[in-house]
Specification:
The structure is a homodimer of 548-residue chains.
Chain A lengths: L18 H8 L4 E5 L2 E4 H17 L7 E5 L4 H12 L3 E4 L6 H11 L1 E7 L3 H13 L6 E5 L9 H5 L1 E2 H7 L15 E8 L6 E6 H15 L6 E3 L7 H4 L1 H7 L3 E3 L6 H11 L3 E4 L2 H7 L10 E5 L6 H10 L1 E9 L3 E5 L11 H8 L4 E2 L5 E5 L16 E6 L6 E2 L3 H7 E2 L2 E10 L5 E5 L4 E4 L2 E4 H8 L5 E11 L3 E10 L8 H11 L8 E4 L13 H8 L6 H4 L1
Parallel strand pairs in A: 1-11, 3-4, 3-5, 5-6, 6-7, 10-11, 10-12, 12-13, 13-14, 26-27
Antiparallel strand pairs in A: 1-2, 8-9, 9-19, 14-15, 15-16, 17-18, 18-21, 20-21, 21-22, 23-24, 25-26
Chain lengths: 548, 548
């Protein structure tokens, strides 16, 4: 049994990029990508990716070089998910909602060799590159991504390279490097770009392949999906569906912005069957006159559990919602697999069941709620006992790039510790009861409260600071800062603190409420009791200033 | 990127057996297996498998030891798919349609350490063990599998060990060996047990895991399937669905025999949603008064393409047929992924499209039709140019056990050569035009014509022999032997030759027609022109003798 060797025929590195040549071979004439008046087939997408990969190689891109992209859900971002690893490089899709400083931190930490920038983000990229240059760090080659049917303007002068020109220039017949090892990196996704030690999550080809398979299975994506890109591709590579839609020979419907009219038009024009989004997109879909859908659209949602009211309203229109849970370090991890018999339950009970994060996807070896101590024992399955969600499996990240400390902290006793606190119900379904202590999720974006506290403490009038989530009618939640004034008599001015933050961080991270208190509540060990602050924040309303 | 090490948390060997503990954890209270009055939950199945694995270890079973089973689709066969590899051993499920000699060849070649035998096959096993013992080869430990609600009789005296007693005796808390390497063997499946060099196909855990994922995806098996075991589990581990049903937390409906009444009763009693079968089972389903199904049943079929007439009749009853292609060496390989738009076509066109074997499943890296020469170039995608179906990917077998020659022949130029001849249509769908020269598929069972010819040549009256497939109204096809008499005047007696074969091979392999001719048609190189013989056989009818 043991003497049978691995052969090139029966031991092929697992690789999600391989879904593209397969799609070109077996779904070649079917539509791959639509975007406005633009439409490609899978054969064309494959050729365009081969061309871009060849162009990257001829620019000097080599194995493990990072190629960054700052762009919305346009065809270029999609194509780069294949073209960049086809050049043996690592794709780094950057969150377009970050500010210049955060983008600069990522570009430096990743040591990006090439940087693709959508025309809409030229200013942001310019500022970020300036910060990189001012620090004396190496500046990447920059290429602009223009909408194909828009005339290319002054931007080209500024940026030298242009996406379509690279695609045209690349030789589709050039021999590309083949994947040597499935453990090789395919993507680099940052969880946060504001701290001094950014966490760059590295995915292996093996992990991304398995995650894609697991996601397709757990969500039940069949043949020929028509997938609407509401979820940004820069979030965990579109929860793996960048690769997944190719695996299924589906249609990628790209849109630049999530406006209700655009979403409904895309759904009806292309017969959308699937989309992913944070619950905030439900608010967009429900604003104004929401039409009843002609055919059901399957929606995978995550970040925060959809509320019963929201669920009821979107499901009435014709959306079929699956609730899932994932994180940058793991990609998709849990999914609330729906049982047919639950369809018969009243709405309140259904939402209650659907609010649970659910069971591990098949590409994980194990998921559980454990007590984070030496024993790492499982909590009882009583729906009450709290523990930390822990994951294990080949679909997890390789680790954080150049961040030994974060790696040692995250990987523990054979598990990856998510930092999220939850319970296991008697039926084995997991539910998160308390998000990772430091994370606030606003409109699907993770905000690190530790980062905010660090910035707030730099304000001359602030002596102590703690940031927690407060409810927000549109964004789900938003940061609320509790501050202690250095000079009790002088106090701290809320508007000024908010202005101070807006200069120093991405807009979505800015606290929308500042509360000045005498002292932060601390326990006997000196730790801030955030539970108390969250309770207090529950009854506050966001400040008007921050809403501007 | 390269410095991030593999860790126990993020590099877990891929293992289809892991679907069982997951099912126990997250689908624990749901039904796993039903069989007559017997019913288990996933938690019970997990515990029973742990017990059996512990019992095997205490019998002395060690890593890479082979545990064979000769049984129909009963719960024990299902459980052994998990319990045997949980003991680090390799499962060898033997085709119950073989004769004693063929079973003996397998037991010897596999060096089976333990041999489980269903009560119905005690006589066959006894004869096979006698042959093994007579040859002075080591005889395995033998355990009988009795139906749980049947009283155990004399058989125990003969066989010493009994399945349920082992399950009872095993300690469910015993520590079991953990999988060291995903390349380690999980199963050993024989393609043929009659030749002097049997081909024992070894699956790795990695391959079986990927194949299971690929099969679930390509067939679109969603949550909570109710799976009816019509396909024998000894065929490629039930086309991977032994492991696949656990992955999906489905119900395994076990039946001992494929009788129409039993099949329809199971479908209606348990709400069957999925089943696999060779087209021969369609004949069983259509015989007599076929009721209309209350809900659609998805059927995956393979071996031979379903004819238009058959397809029409089964689909009218409510079966939804997917046509697929696989082989022992690869497991599932191609599936005729159905396009929604094809539903609108007239029946004849639909069957024509469905008769194609289709596109590669996602766990393969590549599948193509190639010219088997030094270039291994692809044939044009014209639906006409013939080539050999070639496969590549981690879901393929590790190789043939102790058969260097077969391995060297099968793995060629980075491909696994299937031996099947086909074309690629312009849309990328593959279609087999001529089965591997030596294989006849009768009622879903592969018969090696070379083996038959070898046996026929041992008959004193036979000078030359060639065996090809002839059509058969029930079995699809059946072997037809063309013989040249040693003494032209004396000839060869058909009945006698058939009787001769029945003594020497499994019943399903026996030629059902013998034709005596002056000389076999041979080409310039001396090769028998089987195409001509197949044409001749097309108009013959099976002999009455062989039908007994």
């Amino acid at each position: 049994m043991d003497k049978l060797p691995k052969r090139p025929a029966n031991y092929v590195p697992l690789n999600p990029v391989g879904f593209l040549p397969r799609a070109s071979a077996v779904y070649g004439a079917r539509t791959s990508v639509v975007y406005g008046r633009l439409k490609f087939t899978w054969r064309q997408t494959h050729e365009r990716c081969r061309r871009l990969a060849a162009a990257l190689v001829s620019l000097g891109v080599r194995k493990n070089d990072v190629v960054s992209v700052l762009a919305p859900n346009v065809p270029a971002t999609y194509e780069m998910h294949f073209a960049v690893p086809m050049a043996a490089a690592v794709l780094n899709a950057i969150n377009t909602r970050l500010d210049a400083k955060a983008v600069a931190v990522i570009l430096r930490h990743a040591q990006a060799k090439v940087f693709f920038v959508d025309y809409e983000y030229v200013r942001l990229a310019h500022d970020a590159l300036q910060i990189v240059a001012d620090a004396g760090a190496p500046v990447p080659l920059v290429a602009v991504i223009d909408d194909i049917d828009r005339p290319t303007g002054v931007r080209l002068g500024l940026f030298k390279l242009e996406y379509e020109a690279l695609v045209r220039k690349g030789d589709p017949a050039a021999e590309l490097p083949s994947l040597e090892d499935e453990w090789d990196a395919v993507a680099l996704n940052y969880t946060s770009g504001t701290t001094s030690a950014p966490k760059g999550v590295v995915y292996s080809h093996r992990g991304a392949y398995l995650n894609t398979m697991g996601q397709l299975l757990s969500w039940g994506v069949g043949n020929e999906p028509v997938y609407l890109w509401t979820l940004p591709m820069f979030h965990c590579n579109g929860w793996t569906l960048t690769w997944g839609v190719a695996a299924r020979g589906g249609v990628n419907v790209c849109i630049r912005e999530n406006r209700a009219a655009d979403l409904y038009r895309a759904i009806s024009d292309y017969g959308v069957t699937h989309m992913c989004c944070a619950p905030v997109v439900f608010n967009i879909l429900l604003a104004g006159q929401a039409p009843r859908l002609a055919a059901p659209v399957h929606v995978l949602t995550g970040g925060a559990p959809p509320t019963a009211a929201l669920l009821d309203r979107v499901e009435r229109i014709g959306f079929k919602v699956t609730h899932s849970y994932g994180l940058t370090e793991a990609g998709p991890a849990l999914a609330c697999e729906w049982r047919h018999q639950w369809d018969l339950l009243p709405l309140a009970e259904r939402s209650h069941l659907k609010a649970r994060q659910g069971v591990s996807i098949l590409s994980l070896a194990d998921a559980n709620v454990v007590v984070d101590d030496d024993t790492m024992s499982n909590v009882p399955r009583d729906g009450k006992s709290l523990g930390e969600i822990a994951l294990r499996g080949s679909s997890l990240m390789k680790g954080y790039l150049k961040n030994l400390e974060a790696n040692e902290k995250a990987f523990k006793g054979g598990w990856f510790m998510t930092g999220d606190v939850g319970v296991v119900h008697p039926d084995g379904y997991m539910e998160i009861k308390d998000r990772s202590k430091d994370v606030i999720i606003s409109g699907g974006e993770n905000i690190c409260s530790k980062d905010l506290e660090y910035t707030l403490l730099q304000h001359p009038a602030v002596a102590d600071a703690a940031v927690v989530a407060m409810p927000h009618p549109h964004w789900g939640e938003t940061p609320c800062a509790f501050l202690v004034a250095r000079d009790k008599a002088a106090g701290v001015c809320e508007d000024e603190v908010i202005a101070f933050c807006r200069e120093r961080m991405s807009r979505f991270m800015v606290p929308r409420k500042v509360v000045v208190i005498d002292a932060l509540p601390r326990n006997a060990l000196g730790k801030v009791e955030k539970v108390k602050l969250r309770d207090a924040a529950r009854n506050l309303v966001p400040s008007t200033v921050a809403r501007l």
